[in-house]
Amino acid sequence: MNYSKENRPELLAPAGSMESFHAAINAGADAVYLGLDVFNARLRAKNFTTKTLSYLVPYAHDKGVKVYVTLNTLIRQKEFEELIHVLYQLEQIGVDALIVADFGVIEVVRANFPSLKLHGSTQMAIHNITGIRGAEKLGLSRVILARELTCEEIQNIKRKTSLELEVFIHGALCYSISGMCLASSFLGGASGNRGMCTQVCRRKFKQKSTDGYFFSPHDFCAIDYLSHLKQNGVCSLKIEGRMKGPEYVDTVVRAYRTAIDNPAIVSEMKKMLDYDLGRPKTTFFLGGVTYSGFIDQHKPSGTGLLIGEILKCTSDGIIISGDMELFPGDRLRIHPQDGFEGVSTNVIDSEIIDDKLHIKTKVPVGKKDDLVYLVSRKSMYQKFTAPSKVDITPVHFRASHPGVKRILQSVNCNKKLQSVGNRLWIKIDSTEWLDHLKDVTCQNIILSASVKNMHGFLKNRQLLDSWKSRIIPALPPFIPGKELTIWETMISRFSAQGIRRFVCSNIGQSTLFPRGTELIADNPLWIINCASQRAIKKMGFKHFAFSLEDEYLNLRECISQTGILYVYSHIPLFISRMRYAVEQNEDLLDYYGNPFFVSKRDGLYYLLSRKPLCLTHRIAKMASMGIGNFLIDLSFIKPKREFLQNVMEAYKSGTRVSDSTMFNFKAGLR
Description:
Helix content is 27%, strand content 22%. The protein is an alpha/beta fold.
């Protein structure tokens, strides 16, 4: 079946550089998405300035191509002034839409820049119809669905909404569900939610005597499912790759452009995608949820064409075990065996001597046993040199918003709050904890448990009667569409027992509850600015949890008496629908010896740090500033009375639990 231009889905291409922008347009993309040098989830790409966009947007429009700008990071409070000016500039330039994830950004755009269309980023982890309903309430015109969905789940969502749906069809996969990963932030303060991901999932871990790339998935390729996605009502097909070069963009866009326009030759285009210099391919969950075929723990996690292993480093290059012909200007990536990010370098010269490849580089690179990948050919790259001048009249725009002070007044928090004392919240994932909590004075006990554990609580009349005045059931962050009825029934059963307080952890879950329900917004509904606090309140939430990865300096600007501060927690670093390639009951170690453990609950897989977050020694300071709600999270811990007593003693005495971390609270959030 061939599609006319009017009814075919949009082909949306990445542009991380000027060369990639032109490669995408010339290869047949209907739209491109790109980021600025601020506020986008790929800050390490070359990216663009608004001045450059003033030329590129009319240039693209002249060729019938749309331009979407990614503003899909979380915004610290002090960054709002710059954000307002950027939004003002983009509105004048006439970009076709913004891709957003922060509730505060959505709030500011809708109130002050209504002409800007908003697309919900995959960072919002929208994955079922409740998420879509939440997106509709927020005023989004399009949603970029979570990558973890099946074709059937996408189809079922589209049947119930007129909202535009966009899906990824090609490129790198994250182990964690997008928007739910704290690994990079936890291991160095470089937040993936703020565009600074250091790709922890690509690193090597060790479990007992085995080491491997346990969390490094293959690359996504959905070319076999194009007709299904079109029939399911998907309006935009998105290619990942703003960190990749123009040759990748050209190859992948041409393959999908041809496959969309002429489905009869999909098999030929699939072969063409073998040359995208990526990892092995997977169709992921499109054909149904399976638990294998995504990760090869023994295969290095680098991207590109593997040339060989470094045998020796010299003062002017490297000697590797390979015989691939290389040319001056070819670009290589040196990939350490530990999976940490390597360096890229250009080939100055190369020759094969005694079956070994001697490569000359400008500066010394790598170390023995590192792997070397070819990531681009100079001969290919030269094809994509951006034109030095385009025949287009740029859009003239003003740099500063004249009403910035007025807008800032509407997004700032009240900094003159008085201390309101300490209100304790405790979070548990098993009703076994309740026996140990009998003597603890706490009226707010969040039950974030499995479906089975929740059912058991509701069936135990004695337990229910004893605790229902204090229990607050919590919904998981990812609920497959077919399981929504299970949770709707659960909500009804709790409500029938007089329980009227619930915790939500994904956009749209508030739509599941009747009027009069008291709702609490928990991570990963990330709240790191005052505007997002207001947005959450408008959505019906009485309380919210401050972001687990936030820092003291930003918290100080966002004080709220309805906010809840985590002061103890084993933090989920990955939350995934992919089964991990490790044993359940054995700790893992990273390159530096940091310990981690894994857990599974209701189809979700977690990686957690063995070292907990602890801020109990900062409670008095935060309380004096106006924060009055403090949460101790006992999830993922085997219920033990002695352990609880130790944590409660730290809470009461204002001391710190031993062998713990302050996360970004003191060190800062990037």
